[in-house]
């Protein structure tokens, strides 16, 4: 929100654009600067080099005395983020209406960041008692590489002021809708903050709709959806600040298998829980499905990079005496990758592990009595998860919620068992324990009770290189699946709690920031992540960006660490240089 450049009138920008009509595209560089409208300021921070390049970056600043948003709407951090989200969505709606193809390449584009069902902290909008700021991009119009000055003047001097008027003035918006948006987010944050004190890892409100339209449409399923209803034995109640009393299923700490037949809603429930780390927009039907913020989805990830991870908790005594206390590979197996994913999550202080058998390595999850009889323990390097999950809970306070439809062996180590039938949950703990007693598996527990110490991993600075060619910093986010970082591609397709490409842009910026400020060959990865997240907490997400940009969204420490861990050039030492 700096005010360094001299300010000229917006009408002067119109005249300047008309004079640029027909000139070469690079002449657009002359319009970078600040322009005063009658009630707001337009700032053009960056001008694209040609109509096919990344669009130009702009901001509008509107004094709060003009915008008129009541302070009650942004009096807390939770409410402020919700209001910023709402304003971004409103501005985006108007941009969609007025954005039009007006020439070559990206000509005519006016856009903010893409928005999903989640309410994320973004760099697209800011609100305080002084002003409202909204960031967006513009595709400055051209035919070929010749400036279309009249179209540009209409975009910047007519269309954008119209969007500001319709989306950033409180009196022109639906006050009730704003209040619902803010209160929905505030209630979810309030609930999430109270899970731990109630001994819960997650809460699923009654009447929630968990199924989605499809794998590519995250809106709630209509017509055929079964509203969620907690079993009486797991029902808990809360008195929220805004919506008042609500009830729903509380999932206690400890080990909780979710069981049931195929297609009866086990994975749907787990999916709602894993995304309960995020707040939701009104109408999502999962607005009051909340999960502890340090819950991490764990899966097998064949072929992933592993750098210097101590996986000896799960895998030991490899053939040829290969050590697993600082294990590295460029092509991990399913079981090895799942072990590394757990250890890396614990390294970042995860307190809840979420596992679905459909995406887990079978030989990592269970080794039954018959296999134990055929293959002696001394010939099997893997200590299966079933023999660690109870220890992680009892000794480390690490809870696990897992979908398990194929192995009743987990009944022996379960604290709570939830059964799904036609998308309706039942508590089956007593029945599962009775079955475990009646049909003893006879399997031997594998692995000692010594869980060992967490080894500090220290990234070597030269192994994180964001440069490409003559560019010292070059990165690109590719949907929610990958980041091109320097000359390397980071595959994040198995990091399932990333939901927005703007999060990947934030992670890429954070990796560059960490490289520039904290990765020095002495600090551990955990300390580096701590420092970066502390800086973001203090200065906001914009703190890590090189210049103002509106397309970054907040991420967690777990996903930032996951991206660094999947960088194939990453090198780790345990001894500071």
TrEMBL record:
Pfam families: ABC_ATPase, ABC_N, MRB1590_C. This is ABC-ATPase domain-containing protein. Residues 474-572 form the MRB1590-like C-terminal domain. Residues 176-457 form the ATPase of the ABC class C-terminal domain. SUPFAM superfamilies: P-loop containing nucleoside triphosphate hydrolases. It comes from the Bacteria. It comes from Zarconia navalis LEGE 11467. Residues 11-170 form the ATPase of the ABC class N-terminal domain.
């Amino acid at each position: 929100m700096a005010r360094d450049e001299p300010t000229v009138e917006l009408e002067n920008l119109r005249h300047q654009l008309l004079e640029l009509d027909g000139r070469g595209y690079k002449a657009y560089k002359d319009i970078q600067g600040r322009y005063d409208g009658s009630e707001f300021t337009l700032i053009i921070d960056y001008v694209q080099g040609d109509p096919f390049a990344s669009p130009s970056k702009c901001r509008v600043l509107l004094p709060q005395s003009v915008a008129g948003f009541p302070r009650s709407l942004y009096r807390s951090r939770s409410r402020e983020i919700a209001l910023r989200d709402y304003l971004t969505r409103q501005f985006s709606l108007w941009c969609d209406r007025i954005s039009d193809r007006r020439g070559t390449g990206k000509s005519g584009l006016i856009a903010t960041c893409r928005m999903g069902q989640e309410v994320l902290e973004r760099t697209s909008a800011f609100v305080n008692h002084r002003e409202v700021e909204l960031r967006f991009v513009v595709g400055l119009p051209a035919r070929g590489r010749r400036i279309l000055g009249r179209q540009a003047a209409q975009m910047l001097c007519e269309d954008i002021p119209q969007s500001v008027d319709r989306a950033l003035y409180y009196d022109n918006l639906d006050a009730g809708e704003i209040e619902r948006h803010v209160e929905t987010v505030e209630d979810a944050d309030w609930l999430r903050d109270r899970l731990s004190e109630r001994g819960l890892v997650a809460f699923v409100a009654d009447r929630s709709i968990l199924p989605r339209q499809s794998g590519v449409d995250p809106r709630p399923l209509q017509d055929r959806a079964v509203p969620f209803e907690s079993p009486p034995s797991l029902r808990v109640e809360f008195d929220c600040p805004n919506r008042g009393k609500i009830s729903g299923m509380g999932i206690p700490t400890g080990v909780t298998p979710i069981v049931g037949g195929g297609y009866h809603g086990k994975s749907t429930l787990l999916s709602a829980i894993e995304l309960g780390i995020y707040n939701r927009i009104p109408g999502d039907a999962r607005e009051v499905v909340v999960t502890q913020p340090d819950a991490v989805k764990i899966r097998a990830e064949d072929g992933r990079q592993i750098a210097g991870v101590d996986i000896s908790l799960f895998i030991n005594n490899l053939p040829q005496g290969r050590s697993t206390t600082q294990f590295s590979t460029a092509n991990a197996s399913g079981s090895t990758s799942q072990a590394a994913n757990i250890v890396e999550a614990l390294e970042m202080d995860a307190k809840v592990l979420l596992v679905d058998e459909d995406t887990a390595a079978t030989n990592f999850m269970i080794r039954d009595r018959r296999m134990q009889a055929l293959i002696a323990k001394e010939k099997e390097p893997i200590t299966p998860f079933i023999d660690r999950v109870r220890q992680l809970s009892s000794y480390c306070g690490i809870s696990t919620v897992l979908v398990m439809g194929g192995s009743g062996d987990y009944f022996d180590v379960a604290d709570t068992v939830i059964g799904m039938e036609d998308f309706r949950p039942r508590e089956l703990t007593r029945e599962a324990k009775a079955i475990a007693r009646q049909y003893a598996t006879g399997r031997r527990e594998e692995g000692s009770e010594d869980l060992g110490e967490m080894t500090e991993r220290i990234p070597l600075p030269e192994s994180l290189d964001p440069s490409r060619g003559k560019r010292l910093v070059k990165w690109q986010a590719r949907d929610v699946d990958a980041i091109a970082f320097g000359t390397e591609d980071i595959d994040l397709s198995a990091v399932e709690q990333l939901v927005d490409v703007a999060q990947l842009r934030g992670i890429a910026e954070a990796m560059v920031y960490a490289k520039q400020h904290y990765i020095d060959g002495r600090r551990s990865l955990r300390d580096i992540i701590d420092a970066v997240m502390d800086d973001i907490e203090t200065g906001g997400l914009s703190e890590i960006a090189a210049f103002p940009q509106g397309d970054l969204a907040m991420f967690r420490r777990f996903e930032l660490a996951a991206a660094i861990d999947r960088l194939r050039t990453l090198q780790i030492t345990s001894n500071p240089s």
